[in-house]
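Bit of a strange request maybe. I'm writing a small parser for structure token strings and I need a real example to test against, not something I typed by hand. Could someone generate the tokens for this chain?
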Amino acid sequence: MPDISLPKDVRDAVLTELYRQIGELPWMMMPGRQKTRWYSEWIEDPSIGGELADYQTAEGMRVWLKDGPLKEYARAIEGVGPYARYTTRRLTPPSGFLRALLGQQWRVVPESIGEKPMHCLISNEITQRYVCWGGQRTYRDLLWAAINEAVRLRAVPLIVVYTFEGEQVQKSQQKQQEQLAEHCGVELMYVERRWKQHDPA
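Reply from user aminoacidic:
Good idea to test on real output. This should exercise your parser:
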């Protein structure tokens, strides 16, 4: 990941403002083309690009934004990674949606939450299962991760595809995802994730 050598106070101020603005946008639901337009907005923004101008060119800023804080945003809103402290809102934890899907007897195994993709082990005191989750655009990565666990664990892995309020998975896409999951011997469920406010550190 490219990085810009910045004084800590400048870096913290830029990331805090950037994530504040992203938190006011439906960023996770935006198509790539629409997101790209925001890069130019932020480069022109005095509180973001203006602060970075002494340390990097406009093109360098664009690369840094794309491959740094914006690439990490999906993990940051899960409370994971070095950028998580800058978020103004986060997704509710996996324990909530997993119990809603599977029942109150299931618990997240302590220290089992990981990333790339987001995943964990869950247990009902009898069986442990591998679960991975992500937005609908990450389905290929989720399926690959689940298949790899299917050959290692006895219990059927679970893929959870999440959406946000106002977002839907197209029926044709859902049908294809379900067929792929069935063919590969993994379970697939869908859930709508909720936001909660978070005060940047």
